[in-house]
Protein 1
Amino acid sequence: MKKSFFLRLGLSVILLMHSVVSIFSGDVNNFGHFYLDTIGFSPFGVYIAWAVKLTHLLSVPLLWFDRYIKPVAICNILIFVCGIYFVHWQNGWFVVGGGTNGIEFNVLLIFSFLNLMYPEIYLIKKNRFRHIRDI
């Protein structure tokens, strides 16, 4: 397995809990009817809400088994960006503390998925002459 085991495990737990709880509680239907339909997605709000939750749910085993990471990441990043734009932006940055229902958690998830897609990106250029330093 790759070095990303703990990141994949953490993301999968978050996606699993977020999807399963809202599916069994009925919140996914409420979100579709009472939020998405009212902001202009009618009559497709419930279908969009279910597509989001099923995407999260399908992502879980793919993350566990380290399969199709880039498509999983891209789909979830698109969901989180849309979530920021349509749901969380007007609430500011903070999820709790300085505010409620903000964008900070979605931003963290986006960067976590970016790290899964591109684990070898460095901010500092690697030393080309490392062998000289090792002498």
Protein 2
Amino acid sequence: MTTSVRSGWRIFPLVALNLWLAGARGVRWNTRREVEMGQVDGLIVGGGDDISPTLYGGDVKITARLDLDRDALERQLVEQAITAGKPVLGICRGAQMLNIALGGTLHQDAYALSENSRYICCMTFAGK
């Protein structure tokens, strides 16, 4: 599972517990740890900061907290996992990264699109 260097310590244990309950073992990946797609059976791209609009052909129009190194790592891992035929689960930011890695785009300000956007929860799964 990919996580933020800043906040992954809070989120990873919860996902790892759920994986353990399902009979799997989670490995935490971030920009400070060596990653190897061959070590895992699937990929979970976790939530966190906004994704840089430069990845999907946009310009930064709003103030946001970005992590360009994480953007690059996760995009590369999603592409590797898809190429290897491994399942990929995207949670919130991760769902957005799956969309981008597969050629999609995003709206930078969901609240400007709809007042109800705060109620939208996003999760995406790609794979077998």
Protein 3
Amino acid sequence: MIVWLNGTHGAGKTTTAVLVQQLIPGSRVFDAEKVGETLMDISPGLPETDNFQHWPPWRPLVVETARRVLDYAGGTLVMPMTVLVEEYWREIGAGLARHGVPVRHFVLHADRNTLRGRIAGDTVTGPDSPFRLRYLEPYAEAARTWLHAEAEVVDTTHLTPAQAARRIADAVAGPEPGPSGARRGGDGGRPPTGRPDA
């Protein structure tokens, strides 16, 4: 199984993924950004882009790497990775489905003010990262048009990473989502009011 943690840059995916891994026995963290970094290391470089997800090899390589790790090691892969382009998400999902890999897709959501505050106070990438700020609007558009309908939304606005991780782990241990494939988490069922991940 794959537990995919989506959401915009600065939403807390990487931190939460480590905590989720600790709560799900037999799980490992696989950061698909490393696949992008491998492509970035090709010399001479691939055609210039501001986001390695736009390179067509990235999506099938993520699928192939994930399914081969699962074939080899079993268990669960926790994958923190922002994917805001619906076409790319569908390509990845279809590829995993062809290999019979089940995916639980979660979105770590927070309201815009909270996201801005987290980005401003980030001590890893530095405060007010222009890259992360640039994706606030694309995230809002994806959330409105398709992303939240395709995932189990965990509203982290008032949650610590540990609390968010517990909700995700409990959801994975519980019943499968309904026929729509999406189940909202952490909001009582109400709709939440270069480097593509971090």
